[in-house]
Design a protein that fits this description.
Length: 333
């Protein structure tokens, strides 16, 4: 890898260490991370670079910066895989709560004058979800016709109709929200994360990496963090969820439009889709075994998650002031 770094970036590696899925290298006493860039385009990387620079000008700490190759691109291929190099300062302790830090980042994003198009996801949830559903439904129909070849196939065939219904409910919930509610300033596009729980800075383990940014409604990050809290603590997540929303709302009070988008995103069964997609694209049998276990856990916990969805307004502490339309088939809260 040292040779690859020199060939692509003209940098001599002084030290190299593994950090999870990333590799850290040191050059002239500066720290850099080699990170996967799967599914990213050069246009997206340029916009992510601009978002990071904008946050640094606003004084946001511990923000990384993408480094171009000697040929002027952000993405380079290593062993057939797209990778990127990030100048990454050492992570520092976070003095604000996650909710408040997130509110600051989102607010800077809302006021950013830069034209962001390639990384824009706001207003696209329904279309992106529908495309994902259509692809998996076609795969499921084909497997239904040919028959299962493994225990995972059988689980997938049996479970997909349930999660298809949940996903379609989520799409309809977004559509109804866009018809019923008027967006406010809080609902402008903000600097968000592909998956907030996977961003290393959240736990203080890494800098804020440009590779993570997308331009979307703040509900994206808020919902994914709530989903993460639920996955960690189950129905015992109420205290953490309420504190998170209180911290965020102290700086950026949420609108009814935002609350409904948060709920719609929690309705969409993202963990199920990611689990199935990951299983069928895995090249290693050990990975497949892991995803098979994950699918069993999702299916075993489906009724509890229904109870979580049914009682979300109470869990979030908003049942007295925000009306979230009820999903009729969910159990009573």
């Amino acid at each position: 890898m040292e040779k690859w770094v020199y060939e692509q970036y003209g940098m001599r590696v002084e030290r190299l260490e593994r950090r999870g899925t990333h590799t850290a290298v040191w050059h002239k006493q500066e720290r850099f991370l080699i990170v996967p860039a799967d599914g990213r385009s050069e246009a997206e990387m340029e916009e992510r670079q601009q978002m990071s620079r904008y946050l640094r000008t606003k004084g946001v700490g511990s923000v990384g910066e993408l480094v171009k190759t000697t040929s002027g691109t952000y993405i380079a291929t290593w062993n057939g895989k797209p990778m990127a190099l990030v100048r990454a300062p050492l992570p520092t302790a976070r003095f604000r709560s996650l909710g408040r830090e997130l509110a600051v980042i989102h607010e800077y994003g809302r006021s950013c004058p830069l034209p962001i198009t390639a990384c824009r996801r706001i207003g696209q949830w329904r279309e992106l979800w529908a495309k994902r559903i259509d692809q998996m439904e076609a795969f499921w129909a084909n497997m239904l016709a040919t028959g299962p070849a493994s225990p995972f196939d059988r689980l997938f065939i049996e479970s997909f109709p349930y999660y298809l219904g949940l996903a379609e409910n989520a799409i309809q919930y977004v559509a109804d929200t866009e018809l019923d509610e008027e967006p406010l300033r809080i609902d402008y596009a903000a600097f968000c994360h592909e998956r907030l729980p996977q961003a290393g800075w959240v736990e203080g383990a890494e800098a804020k990496l440009p590779i993570d940014w997308v331009y979307d409604h703040c509900a994206r990050d808020l919902a994914e963090w709530v989903r993460h809290l639920y996955q960690q603590r189950g129905l015992g997540c109420q205290r953490a969820v309420r504190q998170f929303f209180q911290d965020y709302g102290h700086l950026s009070p949420l609108s009814p439009f935002a609350w409904r988008l948060i709920y719609a995103r929690l309705l969409f069964p993202l963990p199920y889709f990611e689990c199935v997609e990951s299983y069928y694209t895995a090249v290693d049998r050990n990975e497949q075994v892991r995803y098979e276990g994950e699918l069993h856990r999702l299916l075993d916990g489906s009724h509890e998650y229904e109870r979580f969805l049914a009682s979300f307004a109470e869990i979030a502490g908003i049942s007295e002031r925000v009306r979230l339309p009820v999903i009729e088939w969910l159990p009573s809260a």
